[in-house]
Q: What sequence folds into this?
């Protein structure tokens, strides 16, 4: 169980980046489709769990613990080189976005200059990665516990103390395509993390980890989907929807949730 939670925790912490934690991804890919967005969430969670199981199993069995080794395993050399280049370029863009996002977050909440936030984040990245595989896995799994529990707490808090006169739901179609797109662009970088986790491969552990991922992601995605559906179209959600909602509920909650977003940017 410990290994299963570790695999699932690292995977979940990699999914729940800044776009997820701020509510932007949930709003764009799911909440704008109203009740059909929940169907999309179910489909995307199934796909995430399935990809987790398959990639960890393949990487573990074939000892392809590096992303490039895994690509060479599943496709031709030419295709693998192309996908590797695209993936690494995409990772660089995400890395830059996390630095910029953290700078913007601290500036908007506390008026701190963005450059200081960027330097702080780079130092934290260095401290985690210099510890190697064990340091990376341990920090990611611990942060995942904080992120998941905090999102659940924040969601319940908002539902308990929100305004009671805000209505829910506008309906649009194409929710299925949106859900598949969400999984597709995420799995491009998540595959690299799953290859590393191949070192922990065990068939029984891998199955349990996939179930843990399914339950956890369904819970937190469903919770955020419902909250954003409540407010979407009724108020201006801004660049960081969940911070906007948290501010309406309480100052304490907005400060607390900014820590969740920070942890998500770090992972």
A:
């Amino acid at each position: 169980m410990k290994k299963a939670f570790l695999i699932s925790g690292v995977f979940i912490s990699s999914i729940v980046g800044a776009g997820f934690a701020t509510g932007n991804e949930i709003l764009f890919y799911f909440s704008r489709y109203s009740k059909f967005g929940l169907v999309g969430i179910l489909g995307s969670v199934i796909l995430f769990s399935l990809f987790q199981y398959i990639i960890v199993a393949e990487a573990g069995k074939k000892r392809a613990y590096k992303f490039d080794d895994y690509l060479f395993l599943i496709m031709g050399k030419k295709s693998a080189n192309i996908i590797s280049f695209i993936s690494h370029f995409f990772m660089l863009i995400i890395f830059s976005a996390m630095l910029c996002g953290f700078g913007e977050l601290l500036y908007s909440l506390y008026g701190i200059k963005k450059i200081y936030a960027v330097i702080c984040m780079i130092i934290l990245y260095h401290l985690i990665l210099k510890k190697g595989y064990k340091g990376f896995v341990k920090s990611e799994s611990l942060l995942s516990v904080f992120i998941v529990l905090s999102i659940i707490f924040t969601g319940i808090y908002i539902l308990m103390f929100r305004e009671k006169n805000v209505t829910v739901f506008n309906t649009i179609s194409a929710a299925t395509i949106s859900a598949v797109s969400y999984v597709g662009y995420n799995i491009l970088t998540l595959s690299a993390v799953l290859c590393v986790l191949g070192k922990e491969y065990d068939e029984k552990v891998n199955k349990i980890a996939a179930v843990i991922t399914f339950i956890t992601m369904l819970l937190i995605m469903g919770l955020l989907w419902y909250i954003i559906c409540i407010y979407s179209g009724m108020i201006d959600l801004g660049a960081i929807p969940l911070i906007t909602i948290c501010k309406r509920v309480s100052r304490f909650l907005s400060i607390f949730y900014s820590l969740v977003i920070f942890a998500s940017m770090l992972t």
